Amino acid sequence: MSRSGGEPAQLWTDVDAHLAAMFADDDALQAALNASRAAGLPDIAVSAVQGKLLHIIARAAGARAILEVGTLGGYSAIWLARALPADGRLLTLEADAHHADVARQNIERAGLANVEVRVGVAQETMPALIASQEGPFDLVFIDADKDGYPNYLRWSLQLTHPGSLIIADNVVRQGKIIDDAANDPQVQGIQEFNRMLASEPRFSATVIQTVGIKGHDGLAFAVVL
Ligand code: SAH
Ligand code: DHB
Ligand code: MG
Questions:
Q1: For the whole model, what pTM was predicted?
Q2: Coil/strand/helix, residue 211
Q3: Residue 172 lies in domain
Q4: Which ligand ends up closest to the CA of 174?
């Protein structure tokens, strides 16, 4: 995990560990992280307290249908799916078949039956969802390839209804988003995503910076009007 110089990253990590132990200590989720690590997946899931935040928001919103873009080992999917009512469902999209296999095992071990992991690049699976009218979703969590975010946001508008929530991870990227001359396609993707989120009249949105075990980053929150 890269962090810009001079930031108190050790303190952020220590405080995050303290808060995670208090608010988000969970054997099933720890088992999912351990299995993901053992299977060679990168250590880039949302943090424990961020996962708990996703869970609380999904539950407070009464979400019954959730779409996730970017499954990895299913860590955030488990937090989100636990917020669903018994007849609710979570569909999570993942490009990498190995990640999807690990996620399915983690989700099953967590005792969740109402989750579908769908393999394919979201550049194809999201338009297919629109074409097959599988929506609308009450909550969309965007957390896949950062250069894809602008399209994922456009498609999310077609997969939601007024009142739906859109949440996106990694929208600050150690502050790189304030560099107007950035030429990293991932940073450019996030910059365009944030501009769209701010200017699209069908969203009311904000971005909150976060520090912690994931370094300095941010989460975007939008409600569809
Ligand atoms: N939401 C997960 C972390 C996701 S990491 C969690 O917090 O637990 C990003 C994931 O997006 C990786 O598994 C990666 O394989 C997947 N991904 C990357 N590009 C993608 C694409 N174009 N379509 C779908 N998934 C993609
Ligand atoms: C990285 C972090 C993430 O949370 C993610 O979704 C993708 C990549 C990273 O640090 O590379
Ligand atoms: Mg992320």
A1: 0.97
A2: strand
A3: 4-224
A4: 2
